[in-house]
Every structure is written in C-alpha cells, then in structure tokens.
Task: structure prediction
Amino acid sequence: MDVYPDPKEIRKPIEIEQTFGPRNKPNDVLEFESMLRHEDHQIYGEFGFEKSGTIHIARAPGRLDVMGGIADYCGANVFQATIEPAVVAGCQARKDRLLKSLTYVTEGSNHYRSFQISLDDFYTNGTLKSYIEAHQLFARNPDAPWAGYVLSSFFVLLKEKKVDAFPHGATVVVRSNIPVGAGMGSSAAIKVAVLCAINHLYGLNLNAHEIARLGQIVENQIVGTPRSIAVGISAASGRKDKVLSIVCQPDQVLESVPLPPNVKLIGIHSRSKRSTSSLAYIDARTAAFMGLTILQKKLKLKELRENYLCRLSVENFRKKGWKILPTEMKGKEFLNRYGETVDNMTRVDAKKSYRIRSRVEHPIYEHARVKKFIAHLKKSNEFPTTTQACLKQAGKLMYDSNWSYRSRVGLGSPEVEQIVQSVRKIGISGGLYGARITAGGGGGTVAVLSYGDVSNSLVQILAAYKIAWGLEAKVFNGSSPGAFEFGHIVLKLS
Result:
C-alpha cells in the first residue's frame, strides 16, 4: 500500500520576490535563495531571519594570490585574481537593538556558528568603547574570529564615523564555500560581503575602497591578525576574468589586466594546514620591519621615509643595503640599539634571534618580479604570437617567487612544495608554465599558470599528491565578479 505524507506536514516554501538587483546570479547566490525558500540550516531559527520583510544580499569572492603575497606589508605590487568560491551575506533589519549572526561554511567545516550581541554593548556609560575594549568584548566568545568578522563590522562603522548611530539592530546570515585556511581570502570575503550588506541595508553609500579599508580594520583591530588591505580590495573591486594590480603603499589599484586567450590561473588547494598567524609568518614580518628600521637609520634614503621597503630598488639594495643588514640579530640587541619598529601589528621579542637580511631581500625582489610578471601578460595580450614565450618568462618568475618564499623567508610546507615541483616536472609540454605557494606561505594553495587544456596534467598532479600525503587536493579554475561588480540584491519575503 502506498503511503503518502500528511498534507499538514508538508512545509510550503517561503514566497520570495526579488525587488532589486541582477537577475543573472552565480550558483552560490541561487543556493542562498534556496535556503531561504526551504528553511535550510536553521536560517529562520533563533539566530536567523524573520519570515517576512526584506533581506539585502551581497556577495564577495575569494582570491588567488597570483604574485606578491606577503610582500604586501612592505608596500609591494601584488597581483590578485578572483575565484568562483565566494561568501554570500544577507542582512535583515530587526525591531530591537540586537545584532545576531549565523554563519554556515560548506567547504572544510560543514557546520554553522551563531553569535548575538546588542548595539548597547558597544558603549560604556553612553561612550563608544575603544578598539581594545571591543577586541576584548568579542574575544569572550570561543568563536571570536567568526563573530568578529561579522558583527564587529557594526562597531567599526560607528568608530570610523561612517554612521552616527544605528536606528535598529540586524540579523546577518552568511554562507561561504571558500575553503577555510586555504590562503584564498575567506576571512576578507566575509568582511567585505557583510559590510556591503550592511551598507545597503542602512543606506550608507560606502564605496569599494572604504569597504576594503573597514574590513582591514576589523581584521587588525578586532580580530587581531596582521593582514593588509590588498585581499579586501580584491574581494571588493575584483573583476571577473581579470587580475587586479595593487600597489600596497598603502592601497592603490593600478589596473585590471585581462588574461590572454586560452590562459588560465588555477588554484590547487593542498588541504594541508595553514595559518597566517603562525610564528614563521609573524617572525618574517617582524624581521622585515627590523631591517627597514636599520636601513632608515644608516642610509637615510628619501625612498624609505614613508616606511615602505619596496620603494628601495633592487639595484639600490644591492649597492647600499645588502652589506649594512646583518644576516641575523638577537631581538634584545636590536631593541637596545634601535627600539621598536614602525609596524603596529608585531613586536620584537628580545629572546628571539631574527634573520634580517633575507627577510628584507624577499619583498624588494618580489616587488620587481610582480612588475615583470604583469608586463609579460600585457605583452601577450598586445602581441598574441608571443603568448607562449611570455608565459615561459612569467612562469619562471613564479618559480623564483616560490624559491624565495622558502629560502629567503623560511615559509612553506612539504605538501605544497610537492605540488609546485609536480607542476614544474610536467611543465610546458603539459600546458603548465609556472607555480608558486600563495598568501601567508604556511601551506594552503598553489597558484598555477596554464595554457590550453591541462585536465590530464592536473589528474597526474592530484594522483601523485594523494599517494604521497593521503590528501585529496582540490582544483579551482574559475573566476567571478567582485562585490561591487556584482552589486546587491533585495528580496521581499512573505
């Protein structure tokens, strides 16, 4: 006998009307709308939306660090491409003063986090708290980074005077399919998507640059991690099928460079553990600023007055800077002779010994490599017959960058290095021209420069990697619009 469900138990989908925004939407936005219609993942639960009213939806993609990487904190030119995985954030007004968040990550963790705070918690006796106090406020929660990425955006908007006061609270629901800890800018995408959704809900009229800068403040001041603005700029201002050239002095977007025909930038996520808060990354950054301080004291060059190492050319570094810098120096000796550095995100540890010369050398040389890399791509676009010759030169720069990460900065992992060397072994005959470790350099993702159909080459790389490490690496080879290129959507629920 057929058994049919009781009509009373069949949940009728929520009716949704789109009243604003693009009709041609990426799959991740469509999936978010499906969650709304079918009440997936407690989206209408204690920390979720009301089943009526309007929801403002924004989207920000992850990024592939093609060239530049950690040299950003020294003022380098960085080259960043958007990827298909993205964060979608929905923001709905509340009738009270509560701020509620629900975040759902589909790649790597597959679970949701929830958090709640009141707008009134941002004040002490009517006065807005300091950044230190706000950091402590969010740090009380075990999921502090996630809460900080989402709800501390409201505090930063108040502190930076982008809004005098919020007239009401809000519920923010975030869905991300960017791998966490992969060096693909998952945290930056969350901040940008959330800030864009808040921007549209409250009508703040913030531009892409302001969104990126505010996101950096969230990361540095509330979450407490040393990140540059470049990743946020990529998430906010990136363009589909183009690569963004940014000079981090502090945050000038130079141009969006289209990829030559049949050329792709591929990300291979190693699934090995990575963290930009690791000691190796922090020590490398600290040593670079120690070197800057020494060069400023001894050379007194005008190029270094604004604290950007990358304003010192490779030639000047070779002639004037290299011999001045010690190979290694104790933190105690440095502090006694020079005091603290200008970097407000790191502190010199008196008990440690820092490798200074090599940590300064990397960003200066990397800055030059990035400019040459971009020139090769642009030449290929202008003169298509030179494409493969240009790619060969660009690929060599990627391998040089990867070597410098490991040998001059002391970053990297054996898992990621195997992927790079597998790309190099297959090489041009398999359509693979270059590869390098990305972002903070402690594992994560490899950026690959390819030409034509490289599916067979990728199969070989993934198979060899699994045999060696027992890990299923994942390939990302698509592009998507940045937050401002995509725009935003308004949905009416009834």
Remarks:
- The radius of gyration is 24 Å.
- The first helix runs from residue 27 to 38.
